[in-house]
Amino acid sequence: MVSQHISRIIGTSPQKVYDYVRNPFTLPLWAAGLATSTVTEDNGRYFAQAPFGRVQVRFVQTNSSGVLDHGVITENGATFYNPMRVIPHPQGSEIIFTVRQLEMSDEQFAADCRAVAADLETLAQLLER
Where are the domains of the chain? Predict the structure, then answer.
């Protein structure tokens, strides 16, 4: 298994990035690889339509450390754990997402890394407006 850390400097405070990313209803605005339509809530559980089917998104508990780790649970019950952090940076903040090569070819892994980088770029553009 290979992991790749994808990061992006965002010219705003870590708290602003954290609050925006942690809000599941913002996912369709920046996370095209995860949410392609409106996020819905059902009894405290959040669901999105992903490119690969309907998923549940479950973030770790709210925290003051910038941890945005989240699980993506597919319709068949498979859970994918996604490490994600926002940390202070001299230019504002840095968001870091770890992509793991699980059951995919090198080409698929490279495409996944490019998609995450594009999502983080979109996030930065939204928050730097």
Answer: 3-127
Longest Cα separation, the chain: 43
Question: How does DSSP assign 108-121, residue by residue?
Answer: HHHHHHHHHHHHHH
CA angle 6, 49, 58 (to 5 degrees): 60
Q: Show Cβ contacts of residue 33 under 8 Å, excluding neighbours closer than 6 positions.
A: 50, 51, 112, 115, 116, 119
CA distance 55 to 2: 24
Whether the pTM exceeds 0.70: the reply is yes
Question: Residue 62 corresponds to which tokens in the numbers above?
Answer: 């709210």
- Give the pLDDT confidence of 57-68 residue by residue, as tens digits: 999 999 999 999
What is the CATH code for 3-127? 3.30.530.20
Distance CA 61, CA 82 (A): 14
